[in-house]
Design brief:
The complex is a heterodimer of chains A (about 130) and B (about 375). By secondary structure, chain A is α+β, with helices and mostly antiparallel strands. Chain A contains four helices and nine strands, in the order βββαβββββααβα. The longest helix of chain A is centred in the last third of the chain and has 11 residues. At the A-B interface, loops of A face helix 2 of B.
Chain lengths: ~130, ~375
C-alpha cells in the first residue's frame, strides 16, 4: 500500500525526489494513524539548513507531541502552508496533500540509507 | 497489559468496534474508536456513547447515610428529594478536594455516590473512616463491578431514550434519576453527564451492559472513547480531578465555590469558612490562545517573563476551532481579557483569560 516512488525512514517520514531533483518530505500513513487527529504542526522556515536526521519541527495530536526529523540533508525551499490552517490534511492525505517541506540541495546518496516501500512495510510488520 | 488491570463488561465490545485500548486508572479503556475529533463532533451534533463503567459506584445506605454524605460532600445532601442528584466535592478537614462526584438519592435511606475511577479506593477508605468514627449506622457497598455505566450524550439522546423506554418519566429533567425498563432490563437512569450536552447516564446490571450498548448503537449513536470525553468536558469548562484540582486545592481556588454549602455542619466547614473570608491568592481560569499552539498540563504561565501560573488542562477545541485551556493564575489575571503567555516548550505563546464555560449548548 506504500507508494514505491519514494523512500522511507525508520522515524516514519517519506521522501519523494521530484523531477527537478528537489525532495518532498512528509510523514507516513502509519505515523498519522499512530498519532491520531493532528491539531498543530510546527515546520522550519524556508532557507533553514538541515542535516539528515536533524529535528525539523513538531507535530501535535490531541494527545501527544512528536518531533519531526528530516530524512535527508538539504535546504528548506518551501513549507506546506496549508498545514498551518489545516493540520488535519496530515490525517486525511499523508502521502500527498499532507506533505510538509520541500528540500533543495539534497544529497541523493543518502537515499541508500532509507528504506524502500517493501522494506518499510516489513519494518512495520516487525513493529506489530 | 498486566494482569492487575480491570476490564469493564464492555471490553470485548470495544475490541470488536476497533477501540484503541489504553490503561487508565487501573482499567483497560478505549481511548478512541474512529477518532477523537470525529467523536467529539458526533456528540455535539447527534449523540455518542461512552463506557464509564470504570467510575466508582458506591451505595450508601442506612439511617445515617445522608448525614455521612453531608459531613464530607459540599452539596446539601439531606435537602435533596428522592429521585434527585447533586454534584459536589468531597472535602477533607483541611478543605482540600479529595474527589468530585454526583450523589443520587435513590430511595429511603439509600444514596449512590459516583466518583472518579482514579479515586475510588481513596474515597472508599475516607467514607469507611467516617462511618467508623461518627456514622456507624451506615452501610457502604461498592458495586462498581456488578453495575455497568454508559453515558449516552448529545442532542438526539432524549428523543431516542423516550422511544426505547416508554416508561422514561417525561419529567426526568437534568439531575433527576429514575429506574426504568429497557428491553425488560431494569436500568437506573439519570439525566447527568460530563460533556456539556443534554444526555443520560445509564446504570444497568454489568452483564446487561453489552446489550444496552448495542441497542443504543443501533439508534445511530457513535461509540466514543476517553479522548473525546476529555475534549468535551474541557469545552464545557468541567474540571477533571487529579488534573485540574486535587487534595491540595480548595473549591474556592478551583472556582467551584457555588457547589459548597458552608452553613451546614461538616468536616470542611471551619477550613472553608476561613478560605471564604480570607480569599485566595490564585484561582483557576479558562483561557484561549491568541496564537496557534497547544497548551498542555504542566506548562508555565508567564507575564513580563515572571511565572504567574500553570496550565492544568488544554487542547484543541474542534467545536470552537481554537486552542483552549484551564490553569491557575494570580487572582488579578482571572478577569476575562487579561493577557498572559503560555510557555509551550520554550515558545512564548500569547493567551487571554476567558469566562467559563468555553462552550454551552443552545437550550430549547
Amino acid at each position: 500500500m506504500y507508494p514505491d516512488n519514494r523512500r522511507y525512514s525508520r522515524e516514519h517520514e517519506w521522501v519523494l525526489i521530484e523531477s527537478d531533483g528537489r525532495a518532498l518530505v512528509g510523514i507516513t500513513d502509519y505515523a498519522q494513524e499512530q498519532l491520531g487527529d493532528v491539531v498543530f504542526v510546527e515546520l522550519p522556515e524556508a532557507g533553514t539548513q538541515l542535516d539528515q536526521s536533524q529535528k525539523m519541527g513538531e507535530v501535535e495530536s490531541v494527545k501527544a507531541v512528536s518531533d519531526l526529523f528530516t530524512p535527508l540533508t538539504g535546504e528548506v525551499a518551501e513549507v506546506n502552508q496549508a498545514l498551518v490552517d489545516h493540520p488535519e490534511l496530515i490525517n486525511d492525505d499523508p502521502h500527498d496533500k499532507g506533505w510538509m517541506v520541500r528540500l533543495a540541495s539534497v544529497d541523493a546518496t543518502q537515499l541508500d540509507s532509507l528504506l524502500s516501500a517493501s522494506e518499510y512495510e516489513s519494518f512495520l510488520a516487525e513493529l506489530g | 497489559m498486566s494482569q492487575s488491570m480491570s476490564r469493564t463488561a464492555l471490553y470485548d465490545t470495544h475490541l470488536s468496534l476497533g477501540g484503541r485500548m489504553v490503561p487508565f486508572a487501573g482499567w483497560e479503556m478505549p481511548l478512541q474508536f474512529q477518532g477523537i475529533l470525529a467523536e467529539t463532533r458526533a456528540v455535539r451534533a447527534h449523540s455518542g456513547l461512552f463506557d464509564v463503567s470504570h467510575m466508582g459506584r458506591i451505595w450508601v445506605r442506612g439511617r445515617q447515610a445522608s448525614a455521612l454524605l453531608d459531613w464530607t460532600a459540599t452539596g446539601n445532601i439531606s435537602g435533596l428529594t428522592q429521585g434527585r442528584a447533586r454534584y459536589g466535592l468531597l472535602c477533607t478537614h483541611e478543605g482540600g478536594i479529595l474527589d468530585d462526584g454526583i450523589v443520587y438519592y435513590l430511595g429511603p435511606e439509600e444514596y449512590l455516590l459516583v466518583c472518579n475511577a482514579s479515586n475510588r479506593d481513596a474515597v472508599w477508605r475516607w467514607l469507611a473512616e467516617l462511618r467508623d468514627s461518627r456514622f456507624q449506622d451506615t452501610e457502604l457497598d461498592d458495586r462498581t463491578m456488578e453495575v455497568g455505566m454508559i453515558a449516552f450524550q448529545g442532542p438526539d439522546a432524549h428523543a431516542v431514550m423516550e422511544r426505547l423506554s416508554p416508561d422514561l418519566p417525561g419529567s426526568l429533567r437534568p439531575f433527576r434519576c429514575a429506574s426504568i425498563q429497557v428491553d425488560g432490563v431494569t436500568v437506573l437512569i439519570a439525566r447527568t453527564g460530563y460533556t456539556g450536552e443534554d444526555g443520560f447516564e445509564l446504570m444497568p446490571p454489568a452483564d446487561a451492559s453489552a446489550d444496552i450498548w448495542k441497542r443504543l448503537l443501533e439508534t445511530g449513536a457513535v461509540p466514543c472513547g476517553l479522548g473525546a470525553r476529555d475534549v468535551l468536558r474541557l469545552e464545557a469548562g468541567l474540571l477533571l480531578h487529579g488534573t485540574d484540582m486535587n487534595i491540595r486545592t480548595n473549591p474556592y481556588e478551583a472556582g467551584l465555590d457555588r457547589f459548597v454549602a458552608l452553613e451546614k455542619e461538616s468536616v470542611y466547614a471551619a477550613a472553608l469558612r476561613q478560605v471564604a473570608s480570607q480569599g485566595v491568592g490564585r484561582k483557576l481560569t479558562g483561557f484561549r490562545m491568541l496564537e496557534r499552539g497547544v497548551p498542555r498540563h504542566g506548562y508555565t504561565i508567564l507575564q513580563d517573563n515572571l511565572e504567574v501560573g500553570e496550565v492544568t488542562s488544554g487542547g484543541y477545541s474542534p467545536t470552537l476551532d481554537s486552542y483552549i485551556g484551564l490553569g491557575y493564575v494570580a487572582m488579578e489575571l482571572t478577569a476575562p481579557g487579561s493577557r498572559f503567555v503560555v510557555d509551550i516548550r520554550g515558545r512564548q505563546t500569547e493567551a487571554e483569560a476567558v469566562a467559563l464555560p468555553f462552550y454551552s449548548r443552545r437550550r430549547g
